[in-house]
Amino acid sequence: MMRKPTPHGVSRRRFLQLSGQGALLTVLAGSGLRQALAEPLTPQCLQYPQPSCHEIRLLATDGFMSLPGRRRGADNGVYAFGFRGVLPGETFAGAEVLIPKYKFQVQWPSPILGVDKNSTLYITMTNLGFEIRPDLDDAHSVHWHGFRNPNSIFDGVPEVSIAVPPARDFPYFYRPRNEGTYMYHCHFEDTEHVQLGMDGIVYIKAATPAAAPFLGRAYDNDSNTTRFHRQFTLLLNEVDPAPHDGLRDIQEFIWSNYKASYWLINGRAYPDTIVRDQELASYASGDFNLPFAGLPPDPDLGFSQPVSSLIQVTAGETALLRFVNLGYEQHAMQLLGPRMRVVGHDAVFLGSQVYETNTVYIGPGEARDVLVTAPSFSLAQAVLEGTIADPAGRPYNRYWLRNRNSQRLVNGNQPGLGGMVTQMWVYPAAASLPAQPGPNVTV
Ligand SMILES: [Cu+2]
């Protein structure tokens, strides 16, 4: 069942011949780690020709994450597992190339996967093994949680399927049919591997385009009620550092003792949540800005937590917030300001059941599609009110998006505000925010 770590049964020479027939196109924005690349014209797609065929590469490995009070650079980071993406040109590289480069370079959250409805999709996952625990020969798998037409061999549940041992890879095959927001995670020893960080957001794009200035829509057949200008994926998790430290130190953890002390959005706790992409390299308070040893300080490649949770939007625009909860607690996310319009639960369009609220309740393993239209805010108002400006000099109005449980607005035993809270920055039209090239891209 397992194949050698070579490019998918097509010889390298044959693959180079085939790929010479057309350029490898990057169909998604981002350079592969914040958001996974989906590359067309792959060996699998050529071998079994299908319309709209794409391939994504994921790598499973370990490393250290940086949370407030547990900074990676201070040698006290939080031990973690996770999936990584690859850089352009590496989608079909063998494990012998990827292990020396990416092993021990874990990232949170796993890459955002945005895929086309009715496409043919291969996700090839390679297990790079663990650097800190070479004694563990844990396998990994990819489970697309909520996928509507699963085939057990590609569903990632190891007890009824297969899992991928170290230094091996496996191509998962999907036909995404139902648009909406989902999640994926490792299903091997899943309580441990999900808590350790092997989870991410996958969404299926609606097939019907939305006319400019809209960027897209959340659902097809929506009577134009789910159109949005910008989109943000928000992965909710909690972390109890004890099992992370136990794994690092070869100590057993009793899971009924689980007690979280960090609450995260996209793998970050406030104030890290609102750090923008271009601030990563100079962010003084954190150490997730430290480049990994041996890797260049590339904004996507070099950082352990590359996905910002800051929501930036122009007044009057609609933002799509794709909430996913892969923690073990229910969360209630409250937006202090404009009302939220909940249009989807677990990748199902609510239609006549769409509701407005200021608090979104979301249980473990659940997803919510939420639209927020930014309130009006003019440059004149900004000047009049002496509003704060971002580092580029653009004035903005600020709304808090927070967990409504105050006990989850802390970072361990650190004083002050922390945890599962971020902000929505609303800019006047005159600020001319650039169009968003991909989800969660901040300016
Ligand atoms: Cu795993």
Give your account of this protein's structure.
The structure is a single chain. The strands form five sheets. Strands 12, 13, 15, 17, 18, 19 and 21 form a seven-stranded mixed β-sheet that branches. Strands 1, 2, 3, 5 and 7 form a five-stranded mixed β-sheet that branches. The longest helix is centred in the first third of the chain and has 8 residues, at 12-19. The chain has 443 residues and is mostly beta strands. It is globular, with a radius of gyration of 21 Å. 51% of the residues are buried. It is built from six helices and 23 strands. It has helices at 12-19, 43-47, 95-102, 190-195, 241-248, 379-385; strands at 39-40, 53-65, 78-84, 113-116, 120-127, 143-145, 169-174, 180-185, 199-205, 216-217, 227-228, 230-239, 262-265, 311-314, 318-325, 331-336, 340-345, 348-349, 355-357, 359-362, 366-373, 397-403, 421-427. It binds copper (II) ion. Residues 60, 81, 140, 186, 188, 193, 198 line the site of copper (II) ion (CU).
